[in-house]
Amino acid sequence: MSTQVLFGQLLVGLINGSFYALLALGFAIIFGLLGIINVAQGTFYMIGAFGGWMLLNYAGIGYWPALILAPLIAGVIGMALEKTLISRMYKLDHIYGLLLTYGLMMFIMGAFIWFYATAPRPYPVPPELGGGYNLGFMFLPKYRAWVVVVSVVFCFATWFVIEKTSVGRNLRAATENPMLTRAFGINVPALLTFGFGVGVALAGLAGVLAGPIKNVTPLMGGELVIVVFAIVVVGGMQSILGAIITGLSLGVLEGLTKVFYARGSDMVIFVVMVIVLLVKPAGLFGKEK
Amino acid sequence: MADALSLSIKDLQAFYGDSHVLHGVSLDVAAGEVVTIIGRNGAGKTTTLRAVMGMLERRTGSITLGGKEVIGAAPERIARLGVAYVPEERGIYATLDVTENLMLPRKVNDRGMSLERIYKLFPNLYERRGSQGTRLSGGEQQMLAIARVLRTGASLFLLDEPTEGLAPVIVQQIGAAIELMKQEGHTILLVEQNFRFATRIADRHYVMERGRIIDQIPRAEIAARESQIQQYLGI
Amino acid sequence: MTQQVMIDTRPAPSRAADRTLYLLGLAALLAAPFFVYPLFLAKVLCYCLFACAFNLLLGSVGLLSFGHAAFFGGAAYVTGHALKEWGLPFEFAAILGTAAATFLGFVFGYVSIRRQGLYFAMITLALAQMIYFLAFQLPFTHAEDGLTAIPRGKVLGLFDLNNLYVLYYTAAAVFLIGYVLIMRITHSTFGQILKAIRENQPRMISLGYRVNNYKLVAFVLSAGLAGLAGATKTMVVQLASTVDVHWATSGDVILMALLGGVGTLFGPVVGGVIVEMLQFYLADSGLPIQMVIGAIFVVCILVFRRGIVGEIQRLLGR
Question: Is residue C87 very low, low, confident or very high in pLDDT (cuts 50, 70, 90)?
């Protein structure tokens, strides 16, 4: 088996892993802060991709501004949903939050299907990122390298903000003890809204990055979120770094499996989840309760 | 101090879910006074403090801060009016280091204690400033809990059992800090089981039992009513 | 779930009013095929049983399984294969399908029960997704085509299931068996223990109950009954496909229980009828079914958490 195939699949795995990491990171932030399982995380990925497509086709706005605007749009939509609907779930059993986001996912997906049908729409690779590098052992497309770099940078940036800044400090405090944090004069409800916005904006970023690689369709993200579930179960949801590392590693693992045992590649992440559940139920980076 | 806050509670009823825990509590703390609430475990002392801080779901009655009605206000609003809370469990965050714990509470004004002064008062906190908050000893955590609210410039302090479970030498340090706060003219409402400690600093004591205020003891009468006080505390 | 969900724990027909209701229901069940197309009714009954089986887990134990389609669809495939490739009579094919679902339920339950609440729901969804992928890869499932033109054969060796009335009454019998079983389980001591676990698990643990074992048994029962529903459905519609193991099917059954009333016995039946009718009428309308389902979900969660039967019970002061 040639090195081209091996490294080609490794790259695909790394790219998928980057998307997994961004989605899992956003998902973990939302769960930590709000206690809500955001089933619609994949939907915001789709909104990001569609956002990029719409900006280009309706407003003539190209890739580079879209890279900022699409995640922002996703974030704003998310914050509006949190403020109006999702925040009503905090006083209820946690399961209702999950079911609400499931319902929102279905509704939004259905709405997009109604307007845009399911046929995939192309989104062009920006010309500055076209072509690639011949590294000898593989051909590295520029755009794909770009996707991995941007994802890793944003993951690291998010981690940095959360761990090293005062905003992040407030977020961590609100995650650990929301009521007491309010007693220190911090507007926790607003922080929750903001946190949700950040969590889904990360998904939106993954979406707009995915546009030139994957098909832009309302069905995007539907199955993806289930993989994200498996990833956060494997990584444990308490660790920001854990979500990032697990996402990247499992993506790479998926890519490798495709090389050696193609039929198992869909399932390998879930198999890992089962193994982790049997051996260390709290997750690789999780703490036992 | 001109900006010290007064607190007035009238007929406060409070509920935890369906459980009726405060049955018409009324008390007053004048600006600059130090007042304690004493009583047995479960009397409702902590609940009263939490009600003032806005941390209880259901409460009715009247709570005024410096004349302003705040019975329905959210905790963050009450904090910004100048109220600071040091909970019984200390509330040190495990996911923040000591410095972050210290800097977390939002400043109300610029009249709070400077970091320099705080570190002088509590040198341990400077030494351990990079440690995870919960790695500190009980006494150090208590000092951190007090230090962080001193920084905010708050003028009404709600302290819940600040000396509980601490060694005498630490209790002395805490006492000195509270004495300092009193000298600066701040208003303090203190819940304390350690009556010796309470008598040294407070001007007045309210006695609480089963969600009601049942007695009030001014400083002057403490010696005379010692046996009655011991009865109240169940000693 | 402790404040929002009420469980119907009155003992089986002890009051005259209940007895009348049950008799009316039975009469309706028997008379229905003369008013409504029997094939459609039979299909609906299968999904009602599916919803009731799901609700056994959620209403009694408070466990939200987001992957119940794995049991429904898994049994559908096994039964379909048994009917089509092995020519087994319906009873045996159904038993086989149910057994497969029960076994799958044990495996899934064993892995998932370790985590609580939301983790449990996510894990069940992920596990079911594995089954979905398998459905595309295993030879006997025929991937996207699914199992088609499955022969119905005879029931009890005597009655031709291609006769729509025979078909309907067989499905109704299966439904009744399943429903009564669920009813008995819910009202039994076992059911009471499950309810106690849902309301105060730490206390039950301290009392010495092996809580995880009880949950696992409940899970397996729920999975098996869902499988029975899937097996019967396959015979009725003569088709087993990847739709049966898709996450949307898991979502649909949650909606049925939610709409009808989680924690009530009859609620899922009502929910099942409504959702199936919705799917039928919307199929040709051009309106995406996801939008409607999603909207109903959102509305239910926001303002209608008790569900139809739950609200009726509340109005009647029960």
Answer: confident
Q: What is the edge-to-edge ordering of all strands in the sheet holding B68-69?
A: B19-29, B7-16, B58-65, B68-69
Q: Are A73 and A51 in contact (CB under 8 A)?
A: yes
Residue of B75, B96, B108 lying closest to A183 (CB–CB): B75
In a domain, B1, yes or no: no
CATH code: domain of residue B212: 3.40.50.300
Looking at residue C220, the DSSP 8-state letter turns out to be H
Q: Does B80 touch chain A (CB under 8 A)?
A: yes
Distance CA C222, CA C54 (A): 6
A32's tokens: 């930590």
Question: Does the beta carbon of C257 lie under 8 angstroms from any beta carbon of chain A?
Answer: no
Length, in residues, of chain C = 318
SS3 content of chain B, % helix, strand, coil (to 5): 35, 30, 35
* CB contact set of A90 (below 8 Å; sequence gap of 6+): A34, A35, A97
- Dist. CA B76–CA A191, nearest whole Å: 12
pLDDT value at position B235? 66
B27: nearest Cα among B172, B153, B173, B208: B208
CA–CA separation, C123 vs C134, rounded Å?
Answer: 17
Range of the structural domain that residue B171 is part of: 7-233
Supply the pLDDT for residue C13.
47
Question: Closest partner residue to A185 among B55, B96, B106, by Cβ?
Answer: B106
Strand-pair category, B34-38 with B187-191: parallel
* DSSP helix/strand/coil, B158: strand
Residue in A29, A87, A171, A180 to test binding to B, most B beta-carbons within 10 Å: A180
Instruction: Show me where the domains of chain C are located.
Output: 26-246
Chains near C, with 3+ CB pairs < 8 A?
A: A
A contact test, residue of B46, B80, B100 with most A CBs within 10 A: B100
Q: What are phi and psi of C170, to 5 degrees?
A: -65, -50
Nearest to A149 by CA among A28, A11, A44: A11
pLDDT digit string, tens, across residues B97-151: 999 999 999 999 988 889 999 999 888 889 888 899 999 998 899 999 999 999 9
Sketch out chain A's domains with CATH numbers. Answer: 3-279 (1.10.3470)
Model confidence pLDDT, tens digit, residues A207-252: 999 999 988 999 988 889 999 999 998 998 778 889 999 999 999 9
Task: ipTM value, please give it.
Answer: 0.92
pTM for this prediction:
0.90
Residue B102 lies in a domain: yes
Bridge-based pairing of strands B156-160 and B187-191 is parallel
Q: Is the pLDDT reported for residue C115 higher than 90?
A: no
- Give per-residue pLDDT as tens, B13-62: 999 888 899 999 999 999 999 999 998 888 899 999 999 999 988 899 99
For residues C21 and C27, give the distance between their C-alpha atoms in angstroms, rounded to a whole number: 10
Instruction: Evaluate whether residue B14 is within a structural domain.
Output: yes
Alpha-helical runs (H) found in C56-163: 69-84, 90-112, 117-137
Q: How far apart are CA C318 and CA C316, in angstroms?
A: 6
Q: Does B2 map to a domain?
A: no
Number of domains in chain B: 1
Among the ranges given (A178-187, A199-208, C276-285, C295-304), the one the predictor scored with the smallest mean pLDDT:
C276-285
Write out the residues of chain A at the interface with chain B, using a CB-CB cutoff of 8 A.
Answer: 166, 169-170, 172-173, 175-177, 179-188
Length reported for chain B: 235
Among A85, A91, A107, most C C-beta atoms within 10 A, so best to mutate, is A107
Alpha-carbon span A187 to C185, nearest angstrom? 48
